[in-house]
Amino acid sequence: MSPSPIQLFGINFSPFVRKVRTVLELKQVPYELVPTNPREADDAFYRISPLRKMPAIIDGDRSLPDSSVICAYLERKYPSPAALPTDAYEFARSLWFEEYADTELVRVFGGHVFVEVVLAEKIFKRPPIQADIDLADREELPHIYSYLEGELGSRPCFCGDEPTLGDFALAGAFLNLRHCDRSPDASQWPKLAAFVKRMNAHPILARFFAEEEQTLANWA
């Protein structure tokens, strides 16, 4: 009898959920996405995720919260194919870009752009906070783009020639911007623009984006 698929609790627009889904897909680990809004979740979810954040997983009789913790668990339990580089420095760099995506990109791409451009009126039933959008467009996005442009160097990905966990975390966050019709200007940030375009075409991320576009269409 085959083991039950991992249950992944969260919603598909979350970059944290996308990151875990990507690792599961890369490693071809069976899973079930259980749509869960932490604001409306029951006590059973809070026992799994005491910080009341998504995602969380149940794997048999075990449970874990936090996307980075879950990805570390999956990497140790399913080491092949690897989601992290073997070289010590590149391993650490990949973890750094995962952290950068989870903090700064989520704060700006999610909190100041996606929430205001997409969710404010559709979900929260309020006018968007234009000041947040303007701040992101004027200062925050260019700053992030310039930093990432410099970190790419001459390589197609941030830690080598093939995408690792850090690349997927960054690219997952960029999908939120894509829903808002924003992307790095190739004339100003050519390396980053090429990276984003390449990652958008990755079969896993392309499928996630198509799913999310259909959800947005259903909200209209």
Q: What does the largest sheet look like?
A: 4 strands, mixed
What is the SS-derived class? Answer: alpha+beta
CATH architecture group name of the largest domain: Up-down Bundle
Kindly provide the radius of gyration, computed on alpha-carbon positions and rounded to a whole number of angstroms.
Answer: 17 Å
Q: What is the overall silhouette?
A: globular
CATH class category label of the largest domain: Mainly Alpha
Indicate the CATH topology of the largest domain. Glutathione S-transferase Yfyf (Class Pi), Chain A, domain 2
Topology as a string of helices (H) and strands (E):
EHEHEEHHHHHH
Overall pLDDT confidence: 95
Q: What's the tally of helices?
A: 8
Helix content: 55-70%
| Amount of beta strand | 5-15%
Q: Largest beta sheet: what is the strand line-up?
A: 2-1-3-4
Number of E strands: 4
What is the terminal separation in angstroms?
A: 43 Å
Compute the number of structural domains.
2
Low-confidence stretches: none
